[in-house]
Design brief:
By secondary structure, the chain is α+β, with helices and mostly antiparallel strands. The protein folds into 2 domains: 136 residues, Diaminopimelate Epimerase, Chain A, domain 1, CATH 3.10.310.10; 160 residues, Diaminopimelate Epimerase, Chain A, domain 1, CATH 3.10.310. The protein has 6 helices and 18 strands. An 8-stranded mixed beta barrel has the order 1-2-3-4-6-7-8-18. The longest helix has 13 residues. The protein is globular, with a radius of gyration of 19 Å. It starts with a strand and ends in a 7-residue tail after the last strand. Keywords: Isomerase. Belongs to the PhzF family. GO terms for molecular function: isomerase activity.
Amino acid sequence: MHSVDYITVDVFTEDRFAGNQLAVIPDARGLSDAQMQAIATEFGYSEVTFVLPPEDPANSARVRIFTPTMEIPFAGHPNVGTAFVLGQQAEIFGRAPGDHLRFEELAGLVEVALSRADGAVKEARIVVPRALSIGPSIDVETIAACAMVAPDAVSTANHAPVRVSVGLPFAVAELKDVAALSAARPNVTAFEAANRRYKPDEDSFSLFLYARSAEKPWQLRARMFAPLDNVIEDPATGSASAALGAYLVSLLPEETIDVDLTIEQGVEMGRRSIIEVSVSKQGGTVGKTSIAGACVTAMRGSIALSTPARR
């Protein structure tokens, strides 16, 4: 193999050059793990996906997700963007894609539903592969140091800072208002200290901050910092949005409730993203959690894999 084709898409947006960038390798057969990691590092996006034939023929594909530094078990915008790309193809490893896809991933099976307009894929909705997990709690001083904000900018009225996950773990914390959120900046030294104290098993310490108003509690503004993964800031983080949405619904007093929330992210980066989250709670337990968003194709090309011979 001397080259491999790729497609880049902007995810969680209807506007090209907004949202979160994703590179998709629609046919990664023949690539080694080292080549996949090198390609992800070369792009420098928060994630790159590599599509392979499924191990179970009942599923659509096996999808591997790499950050610039490592492979991860699950992420939101890579699944939405990969589904958008595959849904536009005539076939996926010999079969027509249809409007319902199933991706095999390290975190489990990811169910995807595509929405089309005039035959073209416009949006994808994915169901997260794991149930909500919560903990440990994280001290306010650690959050404040990582985000370079005053400790009193961290709000604990609704919940203390805590790690949550529906497939990929994040520390989540509420800030007192959008002004405090916009002022946040990642402090790599503080992240390294937090990683030593709170490192999750499946990734390094990442921080998802948000703010919301009492008038519109289900319309949130958010930012995500993951400098230890070479992602200083992420313009849209679907897995963190899903985990946060599920966690906030788990805190509600209602035993049974369905909640739709909207998370706006990437504003401070000039790459505004809109993430739609739906959470179902039955009998006091958070069940199905899904995220959805629009996508737009940005670039197509090929990656050279072999080095030209010296003359």
